[in-house]
Amino acid sequence: MSAVAANYNKLQELGVEVISISVDSQFVHKIWNDQELNKMVGHDVPFPMASDGAGQVGKVYGVYDENAGVELRGRFLIDPDGVIQAMEVLTPPVGRKLDETIRQVKAFQHVRKHKGAEVCPAGWEPGKKTLKPGPALVGKVWQEWDPKKDH
Amino acid sequence: MEEQKPGCARPTGARLGQPAEKKVLTGEPEEESMVTARVGMKAPDFDAPAYFKGGFTQVKLSDFAGKWVMICFYPGDFTFV
Questions:
Q1: Is-contact A74 A61, C-beta < 8 A?
Q2: How many cross-chain Cβ pairs, A to B, lie less than 8 Å apart?
Q3: A20, A24, A26: best mutation site toward chain B, by most B Cβ within 10 Å?
Q4: Domain chopping of chain B, boundaries
Q5: How far apart are CA B8 and CA A83, in angstroms?
Q6: Which ipTM score applies to this complex?
Q7: Sequential pLDDT tens for chain A (151 residues)
Q8: Which residues of chain A neighbour B5 with C-beta distances below 8 Å?
Q9: Which of A56, A78, B5, B15 has the fewest Cβ atoms within 10 Å of its own Cβ atom?
Q10: Domains and CATH numbers, chain A
């Protein structure tokens, strides 16, 4: 969570709003912000820290662990139409990598801008080659895109 | 997001919109999943109390319509990762 808070400006530049959620109360969120996060980040957490004490939101998103009573590390990327474009769920001991989320945001925004006429192959980053799906590309991806180079 | 007066009753997050319809009992063991989140599908709306910049507010996903949103679930405050 601190990594997201510390790099929040990178998400804002892409027009991405953030909501964090755990089963902790909003009161505990405040103390975590005041006692620890703002020391790690250098400022207060810049996005709403939501409370899902009963796990009701987590259950609908498939990330509530009933046995432990906590939520797994689930990251969901939602587009301006309210459609989930990407999700990543990890068990608690390993953290996410924000740069990968940012890469995916850029790729989904590129696809959206071109209304799906261009798609982003594995490892795509801005400036790299996109593919234009259509009859002419069938069986010809090998001529257009090199998985050993662009991944 | 409206400002909330903190009280002793602990509010919690809640799913918004239609809950899944109850199935008619058939004698089969009921296997009902609440999960509706899937890529390519509309994100389930929710409303939850939140801490935000020094105050307590409600955060509702549908208030962010028209914007890109990243929702991050995590195991708990004061955990180590």
A1: yes
A2: 203
A3: A26
A4: 44-72
A5: 36
A6: 0.93
A7: 889 999 999 999 999 999 999 999 999 999 999 999 999 999 999 999 999 999 999 999 999 999 999 999 999 999 999 999 999 999 888 999 999 999 999 999 999 999 999 999 999 999 999 999 999 999 999 999 988 887 7
A8: none
A9: B5
A10: 2-113 (3.40.30.10)
